[in-house]
Amino acid sequence: MNDAYILVIDDDVDVLHTARIVLKPHFAKVVVESNPQQINFLLSNQQVDVVLLDMNFTTGATSGQDGLTWLQKIREIKPDQQVVMMTAYGDIKLAVEAMKRGAADFIVKPWENEKFLATIQLAYEHGKSKEEIKTLKAQQSSIHQMLIASDDIVEGESEAMKQVLKQVQKVAGTDANVLILGENGTGKEEIAKLLHKNSLRNKGPFIKVDLGAITETLFESELFGHVKGAFTDAKEDRHGRFILSDGGTLFLDEIGNLSLTMQAKLLSILQNKEVTPVGGSKPAKVNNRVIAATNSDIQKGIVDKTFREDLLYRLNTVTILLPPLRERVEDLPALANHFLKSFNTKYGKYASFEAGVIDELKGYSWPGNIRELMHAIERAVIMSDADSLTMHDFLINQNNLTSNPLVDTVNLDDIEKNTIERAIKKYEGNISKAAKELGLGRTTIYRKMDKYGIKY
């Protein structure tokens, strides 16, 4: 038995009774209806897989026009609905006409049960195939637009981003697993999309899993899938993200949030290249590239025994470290203009930046990185009544605005010193908080403070 919903419409009660008896052992839900006037209600309130429709409903009618009329109405309600026509009169011309108008197949009454079941099963499978193709096309279109949008976010003129993009160029064409490190909002997902776009798997799916949002109880179901009845809410078979990304790329975001138990299960999949759905017994081979990302200090996790070293080795064939926005402020003008153009289009505005605004934005520390910049510009575009955006349109902490260090110098030591001083000032001398925002350990920040003679 499969999960199909079959709707049988015929004015002959004996036909409906027979159809129910034949179909019930093979399909999950079989509904019979003698009144075709109920078609609109039934199709609008249920996801019907196959409709079996009689050709004649008027007493004494044999032309089949009733059925053709109702077929057209069904197609108007649901253009992709699978409809199998039924008639007691084996008129080939009528069958051809029904097929021309969108019928999936044609059955002559009285039918042979085996052929009857085969015809309906074929229509059901054809409908599912069309749905999968439609979904796949939508996904591919979405991925294409997503990948185009990501280019403007990751490209940059800063030396830091040039180094990142060189790494991406080298590793994208391989099947090596990649670990992307960086603070929240630095664009780790965009780098993952760029790797997928430039890989040999770019025709396959790009599937993201936010591991930070998945509870331990749902972890296996989400990643490995489940079979119907595996647990209380498992009402149907469901593919996990590993199967859905087969042939493409699986992006595991916030990998550092996994418990040791979940890490062990993930490691097993990566080693064996096969998954067994929850409640299932047959493992399925998977062929996908895994890209992981985190803002956590993985090395510290290994020392603290909260992250498995063997899992890290499986994930980080290549490690890409994304710089925070404060370390690539040369890229801010291009990013800001990209977001401005995008939100102008989205909200039907024609805003531009007032002279000097970009330079002032470059002097802000941007603790939320690119994501914070994006949200700040979106809000400014929405709330401003003028065509020119001023600093008053941006809800950012003015205490974090300083003169831009890159205006006067491009010396890396000077930039690093200035950044550390700004972080310490921001947190009023709290070195732990400053170190956390900078992505540095306490020992490292004290060493750099001593190097640059920074007092607090």
How would you describe what is shown here?
- By secondary structure, this protein is of the alpha/beta class.
- Helices cover 48% and strands 14% of the residues.
- The protein is built from 19 helices and 16 strands.
- The protein has helices at 13-23, 39-45, 65-77, 92-100, 113-154, 159-172, 188-197, 216-224, 241-244, 260-272, 298-303, 309-315, 332-347, 357-362, 369-383, 405-408, 412-426, 431-438, 442-452; strands spanning 2-9, 27-33, 50-54, 82-87, 105-108, 178-181, 206-210, 225-226, 238-239, 249-253, 274-275, 284-285, 289-294, 318-321, 352-353, 388-389.
- Strands 2-1-3-4-5 form a 5-stranded parallel β-sheet, with helices on both faces.
- Helix 3 links the parallel strand 3 and strand 4.
- Helix 13 crosses helix 15 (369-383) and helix 17 (412-426) crosses helix 18.
- It starts with a strand and ends with a helix.
> What is the mean pLDDT?
85
Rg, Cα atoms, Å: 30 Å
Structural class: alpha/beta
Parts with pLDDT < 50 across at least 5 consecutive residues: 402-408
Separate helix tally = 19
Task: Give the topology.
Layout: E1 2-9, H1 13-23, E2 27-33, H2 39-45, E3 50-54, H3 65-77, E4 82-87, H4 92-100, E5 105-108, H5 113-154, H6 159-172, E6 178-181, H7 188-197, E7 206-210, H8 216-224, E8 225-226, E9 238-239, H9 241-244, E10 249-253, H10 260-272, E11 274-275, E12 284-285, E13 289-294, H11 298-303, H12 309-315, E14 318-321, H13 332-347, E15 352-353, H14 357-362, H15 369-383, E16 388-389, H16 405-408, H17 412-426, H18 431-438, H19 442-452
Parallel strand pairs: 1-2, 1-3, 3-4, 4-5, 6-13, 6-14, 7-10, 10-13, 15-16
Antiparallel strand pairs: 8-9, 11-12
